[in-house]
Amino acid sequence: MNRTAMGTFETLIIPLLILVLWTLASSFQWVNPYLLPSPGRVFLAACHLAETGELAKHLIVSFKRVLAGFSVTLVIAVPLSFLIYILPVFKRLLRVPLEFLRSVPPISTIPLLILWFGIGEASKMAVIVMASFFPVFLNLMGGLNTIEKEWQELSETLKFNHAEYIRYVLFPGAFPSFLTGIQLGLSYCWRALMGAEMIAAASGLGYLILDSQEMGRIDKVFVGIITLGICGIVLDRVLIKLFNRLIPWKDLEVEHKW
């Protein structure tokens, strides 16, 4: 219990110090109160947004966009990874286009995507796919490339066909890396969506932040930012718990160690 309590205290000490400094800065007006509203004002704004249902509405819209876009990413990235691994000719054909796309920040394509797809959901979905594709694709490819040759030789001995080879050798061998790619991909598409919602949206957390800024409600801006951070932490913790149940032989907590 003492070790657990100490670990909890060490985890919370920096956030608590930040909260204390924030309170002091707003109380003694070290910073313009308009630019840095007090924690109390931010808390009251959060309560108001929660009571009216506005915060939940924007949060649900953003989550739906992320899940829909990430589903498209999985449909594209997973088959393409296996195809490139099994047929190296596709790796040679797609190397340059994929490297080019990986170097282009998704946010930079938003003006073009709006011209192509309008300000509806299609442009936001495209941003999410561009942001989350490479974390999933590259991690899955990395997992496939680390599969031991002995397993491949065993599959040849057992005369597996392509479907059996993928099902019983490739996918289980690359599964831990695939889950890491999902973890990273979701965080990347969440960040990219916020940028898209700030530019072309009528709902979502990104829209809430930008609209609050334009209305001079900096306390609501803080609510939106804090909500993003809390959602990111919760989602990451849930994914780690789920993945450690699926692959108990690999502790994904190491992804957070420095």
UniProtKB/TrEMBL annotation:
Gene Ontology CC annotation, any one: plasma membrane
BP GO terms, sorted: alkanesulfonate transmembrane transport
InterPro entries referenced in this protein's UniProt entry, alphabetically: MetI-like (IPR000515), MetI-like_sf (IPR035906)
Record PROSITE patterns: ABC_TM1
Superkingdom field: Bacteria
Localisation: Cell membrane
Ranges where the ABC transmembrane type-1 domain occurs: 59-239
Main localization category: membrane
Keyword Acetylation: no
Transmembrane segment boundaries: 66-88, 100-119, 125-144, 165-186, 192-210, 222-240
Alphabetical UniProt keywords: Cell membrane, Membrane, Transmembrane, Transmembrane helix, Transport
Entry-linked PANTHER family: ABC TRANSPORTER PERMEASE PROTEIN MJ0413-RELATED, ALKANE SULFONATE ABC TRANSPORTER-RELATED, MEMBRANE SUBUNIT
Family per similarity comment: Belongs to the binding-protein-dependent transport system permease family.
Protein name per the record: ABC-type transporter, permease protein (Membrane spanning protein)
Native source species: Desulforapulum autotrophicum (strain ATCC 43914 / DSM 3382 / VKM B-1955 / HRM2) (Desulfobacterium autotrophicum)
